[in-house]
């Protein structure tokens, strides 16, 4: 496909997303199935265009003065990739498979795309109903924080110290131009190029050998902040596909014991292969056998550390899932708040006296973070908050103390603050 035909295809996919209010991934998949002549390079280039536009959906509509799929594509790419008007003129030629030529109004809008008079939720590209929560989390800096969340994310890798060292992995992956992550001691970063194509990391021998895992630097830091020791009994209560379990196992040097579980067996399914590939020997996966089964019943009051990588809105990962931010609704936030309270209550039953709960979300919404911790502490007088600065210091990440969350209950990472996805981490100690 020509670059111009890819633009037309991206407009078609955006039209499908808008008309049927469906996830971008579904619309892209269907487009691929209906256009079998398109190769993988075409499909990933089209996906790159669509996701770049979705990151800037509101500001694109603002600069173009309308929200048609074509306007979103033109405005979104202008803002996200800084293309010149001449480049658009070249591609939008009206030739076969190419978009129609620019109108005078479109050209004028693309020449001077200004967000000077845009309200915060438009300049920052987020749903208007979340404005109060962004203001609470980030104060005056909310537009800049949201703009950082509207950038394309890099691909971060965590080097598995059960198999290799960061230096060896970096040498093996030099062709990706990897650089060490700034804060996570085992991370390697790959910056995505202008075409937005993600590197095929999974096809690399280093990946097949279990040397590396794909894991955002913020997620790596969250696991490190939990400060798991080699002699601990650790529960990973919301283990999902096992990203945190793998990081904890390496931090514990394959010693002690990790019990990994999740209420959703399907989400847990990939963990088995991942543990094998990574050479993890200190993790047991305990899948629930039925709706009311508690596979961890025998551990009640015995765990040194319970990691709660809580189900959340995922607002901190908007860089990677830009259509999730537009699809988010107030009732989905309410559902997640109820889930989080339930998982915290479960964690409280498992932890021993003197043990800790590490509460983690990939969100910046205070209701899911500080608010959830405040409610838990009010209802569980036997627990105390470990001061966030102490948490950072104990994990060997003292610099993170500067990113204490708005109401002081945890550490709040974000693309603007720490160059990572948005993560919240709070630690609670059971004292009685
Ligand atoms: C953020 S994801 C976990 C990601 C995973 N820890 C990782 O690092 O790859 C949250 C998980 O919590 C699970 N979950 C939801 N409610 C739960 C509950 N009450 N108890 C345990 N897990 C729960 C979901 O199925 C989901 O897999």
Automatic annotation (TrEMBL):
<dbReference type="InterPro" id="IPR001678">
    <property type="entry name" value="MeTrfase_RsmB-F_NOP2_dom"/>
</dbReference>
<dbReference type="InterPro" id="IPR049560">
    <property type="entry name" value="MeTrfase_RsmB-F_NOP2_cat"/>
</dbReference>
<protein>
    <submittedName>
        <fullName>RsmB/NOP family class I SAM-dependent RNA methyltransferase</fullName>
    </submittedName>
</protein>
<feature type="binding site">
    <location>
        <position position="309"/>
    </location>
    <ligand>
        <name>S-adenosyl-L-methionine</name>
    </ligand>
</feature>
<dbReference type="Pfam" id="PF22458">
    <property type="entry name" value="RsmF-B_ferredox"/>
</dbReference>
<keyword id="KW-0808">Transferase</keyword>
<dbReference type="InterPro" id="IPR054728">
    <property type="entry name" value="RsmB-like_ferredoxin"/>
</dbReference>
<feature type="binding site">
    <location>
        <position position="262"/>
    </location>
    <ligand>
        <name>S-adenosyl-L-methionine</name>
    </ligand>
</feature>
<feature type="active site" description="Nucleophile">
    <location>
        <position position="362"/>
    </location>
</feature>
<dbReference type="GO" id="GO:0032259">
    <property type="term" value="P:methylation"/>
</dbReference>
<dbReference type="Pfam" id="PF01189">
    <property type="entry name" value="Methyltr_RsmB-F"/>
</dbReference>
<dbReference type="GO" id="GO:0008168">
    <property type="term" value="F:methyltransferase activity"/>
</dbReference>
<keyword id="KW-0489">Methyltransferase</keyword>
<dbReference type="InterPro" id="IPR023267">
    <property type="entry name" value="RCMT"/>
</dbReference>
<dbReference type="InterPro" id="IPR029063">
    <property type="entry name" value="SAM-dependent_MTases_sf"/>
</dbReference>
<keyword id="KW-0694">RNA-binding</keyword>
<feature type="domain" description="SAM-dependent MTase RsmB/NOP-type">
    <location>
        <begin position="145"/>
        <end position="431"/>
    </location>
</feature>
<comment type="similarity">
    <text>Belongs to the class I-like SAM-binding methyltransferase superfamily. RsmB/NOP family.</text>
</comment>
<keyword id="KW-0949">S-adenosyl-L-methionine</keyword>
């Amino acid at each position: 496909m020509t670059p111009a035909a890819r633009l037309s295809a991206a407009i078609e996919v955006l039209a499908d997303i808008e008309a049927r209010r469906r996830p971008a991934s579904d619309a892209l998949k269907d487009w691929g199935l209906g256009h079998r002549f398109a190769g993988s390079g075409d499909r990933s280039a089209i996906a790159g265009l669509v996701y770049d536009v979705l990151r800037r959906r509101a500001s694109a509509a603002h600069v173009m003065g309308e929200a048609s799929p074509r306007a979103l594509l033109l405005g979104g790419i202008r803002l996200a990739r800084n293309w010149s008007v001449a480049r658009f003129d070249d591609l939008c030629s009206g030739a076969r498979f190419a978009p129609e030529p620019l109108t005078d109004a479109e050209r004028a809008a693309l020449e001077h795309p200004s967000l000077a008079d845009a309200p915060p939720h438009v300049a920052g590209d987020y749903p208007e109903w979340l404005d109060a929560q962004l203001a609470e989390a980030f104060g005056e800096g909310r537009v800049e924080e949201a703009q950082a969340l509207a950038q394309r994310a890099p691909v971060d890798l965590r080097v598995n110290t059960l198999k290799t060292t960061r230096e060896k992995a970096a040498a093996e992956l030099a062709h990706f131009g990897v650089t060490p992550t700034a804060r996570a001691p085992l991370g390697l970063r790959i910056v995505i190029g202008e075409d937005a194509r993600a590197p095929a990391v999974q096809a690399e021998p280093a990946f097949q050998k279990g040397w590396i895992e794909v894991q955002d630097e913020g997620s790596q830091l969250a696991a490190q902040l939990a400060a798991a020791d080699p002699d601990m009994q650790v529960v990973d209560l919301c283990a999902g596909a096992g990203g945190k379990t793998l990081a904890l196992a390496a931090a514990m040097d394959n010693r002690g014991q990790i019990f990994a579980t999740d209420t959703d067996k399907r989400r847990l399914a990939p963990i088995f292969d991942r543990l094998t590939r990574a050479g993890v020997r200190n993790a047991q996966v305990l899948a629930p056998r039925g709706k009311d089964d508690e596979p961890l019943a025998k551990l009640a009051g015995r765990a040194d550390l319970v990691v709660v990588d809580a189900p959340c809105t995922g607002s901190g990962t908007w860089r990677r899932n830009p259509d999730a931010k537009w699809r988010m609704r107030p009732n989905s936030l309410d559902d997640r708040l109820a889930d989080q309270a339930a998982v915290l209550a479960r964690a409280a039953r498992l932890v021993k006296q003197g043990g800790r709960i590490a509460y983690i979300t990939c969100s910046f919404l205070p209701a899911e973070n500080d608010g959830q911790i405040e409610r838990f502490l009010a209802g569980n007088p036997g627990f105390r908050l470990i001061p966030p600065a102490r948490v950072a210091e104990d994990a060997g990440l003292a610099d993170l103390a500067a990113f204490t969350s708005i109401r002081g209950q945890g550490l709040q990472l974000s693309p603007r603050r720490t160059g990572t996805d948005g993560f919240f981490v709070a630690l609670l100690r059971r004292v009685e």
